[in-house]
Design brief:
The chain contains 21 helices and 20 strands. With 628 residues, it is α+β, with helices and mostly antiparallel strands. The strands form 4 sheets. Strands 1, 2, 6, 7, 8, 9 and 20 form a 7-stranded mixed β-sheet that branches. A 6-stranded antiparallel β-sheet has the order 14-15-16-17-13-18, with no helix packed on it. A 4-stranded antiparallel β-sheet has the order 11-10-19-12. Keywords: Cytoplasm, FAD, Flavoprotein, NAD, tRNA processing.
Length: 628
């Protein structure tokens, strides 16, 4: 029997973050996995980021986590999404080389001091008087620990479906972990069962690329997830293109005529899948008015011909998957290298957790990732680092790290998991946060790096870099406010004429930057005509931060006042006969849930599963009579 401070069960995105956090905080840690070959493997889409998900990845990085840095070592394409929208929803998205990502993560885990990796299946939790004492494994071994983090992903009683075929497993070709569910149930935990799915993978050599729309990455400026990645490292990586196509009426006919062979529709699968990542059969049925659906063809890496079809998740039989694929433009001769499938798995009801991700039922036991009912790599990594940090802090006898809705998307997610009923896999969206203009992707380091540094994860040199950035932003905004301009500034006149704008006397650089069309680069150009100009040349992240804070100053101030107002939600009553159907501007899902639950006040409404903060804002306006 070997003793550890912290044991982590599972080596996916949640597990590796938890184990690395604990070990880096000086705790003697072990991570258990069914197979050491798949540490940090991307089970589904080989990508990180997108709206809200990039926010989570950057928050993990600000705390000192590994996901962002690992992606920067392995990406094959990097793009910024929503560039024409506001900064709250602007997001970085990256395609990874699936093999390189997993290999780099495995290398990081195996090199980490204080961390043992063990291949074995955990079968039982050992407890005493309501506290965790360790684990037992399938090989008959027993390990003692002061804290345990469960991050089991889709492996608890995992069951795979391809048409009429059922195979036990948490991932295709891998074993499931069946005994641990019994151990959790015996301890009294409320359990549930969810499903997810993955699409087929194609051989790129069999695609007609001329018929597909090409989508290259962005190479003009260095893009990265981690503050610990240099601009030179980010810009030096080669990139691969993705491709776009669409389903068509022929595709939809094949799908609708064979619904009796789809496990989701013939009764084989009764568990709930992710609403916002549905199978293609689900999309065709629920959106029968649409003639087509977008599909994204994403290379799996530099050293493989495999291509992932984002948007075509399915559990149809293999021969039907081939027909569906070949009905799509550009894929008429496509060869399927791996078939899509659905997977059912057990979860623990997240109402069992407190805000540190420690269970209320068993002290010293922490849960993270899909086990808590979430969906997505970034959601898993975010929970993993919090669970790992708090497991380590508990062993050290220190107070836990608690992130709230006002500070982060991580805090928003944990609050939602604990307080809202979970009917389906939880995925993060910017609309889930009522403070999304404050919790932007670009300021994750400013918001959370102090916490990462204080718990001992973020090295001092990177925290000092963030402090310098904060100082530069503050001082530069002050200088912009103090620098007045006149018509003698020819470059200013030139910029204003370009945008068709006029100049008032006494205008400052800050007031010019506030104008919607004026960019920070314009301000630097105007400053060339100023005697003793303020220092304006910084790295791209600092300059963007200055621009956002200036342009959205008023909106940010109003968002902060909303933060105070929404604390009073529980005192705002909803009439018993309130007509939710008459409301415009809220989602169909929100109307459905609110009609079912009939909450007494807005605070209760805000905690109903499927109702977003954006929906609540609209509800308040209806109650206040602003909207009718």
């Amino acid at each position: 029997m070997k003793n550890y401070d912290v044991i982590v069960v599972g080596a996916g995105h949640a597990g590796v973050e938890a184990a690395l956090a604990s070990a880096r905080m000086g705790l003697n840690t072990a991570i258990f996995t069914i197979t050491l070959d798949n540490i940090g493997v991307m089970s589904c889409n080989p990508s990180i980021g997108g709206p809200a998900k990039s926010h989570l990845a950057k928050e993990v990085d600000a705390l000192g986590g590994e996901m962002g840095r690992n992606m920067d070592k392995s990406f094959i394409q990097m793009r910024i999404l929503n560039t024409k929208k506001g900064p709250a929803v602007r997001s970085l998205r990256s395609q990874a080389d699936r093999k390189i990502y997993a290999l780099e993560m495995k290398k990081t885990v195996e090199k980490q001091e204080n961390l043992d990796t063990i291949q074995d299946i955990v079968t039982e939790l050992v407890t005493e008087n309501g506290e965790i004492r360790g684990i037992k494994t399938k090989t008959g071994m027993e390990f003692c620990a002061k804290a345990v983090v469960l991050a089991t992903g889709t492996f608890l009683r995992g069951l795979l479906y391809i048409g009429e075929k059922r195979v036990k497993g948490g991932r295709m070709g891998e074993l499931s972990a069946d005994d641990l569910t019994s151990s959790l149930k015996n301890l009294g935990f409320k359990m549930g069962r969810f499903k997810t799915g993955t699409p087929p993978r194609l051989d790129i050599r069999t695609l007609d690329l001329e018929k597909l729309e090409k989508q290259p990455g962005e190479t003009e400026v260095p893009l990265k997830f981690s503050m610990r990645t240099s601009n030179e490292e980010a810009q030096s990586r080669p990139q691969l293109s993705c491709f776009l196509t669409r389903t068509n009426l022929t595709t939809h006919k094949i799908i609708t005529e064979n619904l009796h062979r789809a496990p989701m529709y013939n009764g084989s699968i009764s568990s709930t899948g992710p609403r916002y990542c549905p199978s293609i059969e689900d999309k065709v049925v629920k959106f029968s008015d649409k003639d087509s659906h977008h599909l994204f063809l994403e290379p799996e890496g530099f050293h493989t011909t495999e291509v992932y079809i984002s948007g075509l998740s399915t559990s149809y039989p293999a021969e039907l998957q081939q027909k569906i694929v070949n009905s799509i433009e550009g894929l008429e001769n496509a060869h399927i290298m791996r078939y899509g499938y659905a997977v059912e798995y057990d979860i623990v009801n997240p109402s069992e957790l407190d805000y540190s991700l420690e269970t209320k039922r068993i002290k010293g036991l922490f849960l993270a990732g899909q086990l808590n009912g979430t969906s997505g790599y970034e959601e898993a990594a975010a929970q993993g680092i919090i669970a790992g940090i708090n497991a380590a802090l508990k062993v050290k006898g220190k107070e836990p790290l608690i992130l709230d809705r006002e500070s982060s998307y991580i805090g928003t997610m944990i609050d939602d998991l604990i307080n809202k009923e979970l009917f389906e896999p939880y995925r993060m969206f910017t609309a889930r946060s009522e403070y999304r203009l404050i919790l932007r992707e670009d300021n994750a380091d400013i918001r959370l790096s102090e916490k990462g540094y204080k718990v001992g994860l973020l090295p001092k040199k990177y925290y000092d870099k963030v402090l310098k950035k904060i100082e530069n932003v503050k001082n530069t905004i002050t200088k912009l406010e103090e620098t007045k301009l006149g018509t003698s500034n020819k470059k200013l006149v030139e910029i204003l004429e370009k945008y068709g704008e006029s100049l008032k006397s006494g205008t400052t650089l800050k007031e010019i930057l506030r104008r919607p069309k004026v960019t920070y680069e314009d301000i630097k150009y105007i400053a060339q005509d100023i005697e003793n100009p303020p220092k304006l040349d910084f790295d791209a992240e600092t300059e963007y931060q200055i621009e956002v804070q200036v342009k959205y100053e008023g909106y940010i101030a109003r968002a902060l006042s909303v933060m105070e107002r929404e604390k009073k939600l529980d005192t705002k009553l909803i009439p018993k006969d309130f007509d939710y159907d008459a409301m415009k501007g809220i989602t169909r899902e929100a109307k459905q849930r609110l009609k079912e639950k009939r909450p007494y006040n807005v605070g209760q409404a805000a905690r109903v599963a499927g109702v977003t903060p954006a929906d609540i804002s609209v509800l308040i306006m209806y109650l206040d009579g602003i909207l009718k």
